[in-house]
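Researcher: Go.
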Amino acid sequence: MTEAEPVLVLWDIDRTLLYVGDIDRQVYRECFAEIVGRPAERLPARGTGMTMPLAIRGLLLDNGVPEQNVPGLLEKMVQLLPKKLADHSEEMRREGILMPGAVAALSAVADAPPLVATIVTGNLKANARLKLDAFDLVRFVDTEIGGYASDSGHRPSLVAVAQNRAKSRYGSPFTRANTVIIGDSLEDVRTGREGGASVIAVASGTTPVEDLGAAGADMVLDSLEDVERLMAAISTVTTRH
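Model: Structure:
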């Protein structure tokens, strides 16, 4: 990576930058009850990195909704989800936590001119903004060029979405050679490998260091607390190609 070459840094949100505990699952409960008309007995698994549309589809099917009814109900739940999460904004600020080193890491990337920082996440765009706003993190990323579950339920395709948006805004092409995902889950690793980005995995979620490495992450960090190591990792993985 040279000083003049732009590098697109795609941050994951949940368990990489912040953690909102059971709030996402509570929002799924509320949406299901309002749209379907009864309580959900089974909820999506925690910490998988799955996109929200896929999680909602699984939620509906796992709770006995006939498959032919899923598309219509899924669309209604996707529309309702941000409204329900917004109702929990104060709770997120009060009870959510920043992951160790997240603010310093975000700040370091934002202050390095060759690096263009945005988001690639399984969250809907509105939900991503609500979470980032709750922790005052929007200032560190260009959310308008990110890739979100509102763009596609297939997470690897979100890399190209972000790359194309970044190219339109900044005028430079972004490919695997100058794009890196920073995330905590096996889904983040898969997103990079299949979508066209290097992967720096951070073992801040539910997946151990060994599993992240075995899944194909280019580099694995224990946390974001060692900012110098993170910056060196970004440089390393974007000069290998």
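Model: DSSP finds ten helices and seven strands in the chain.
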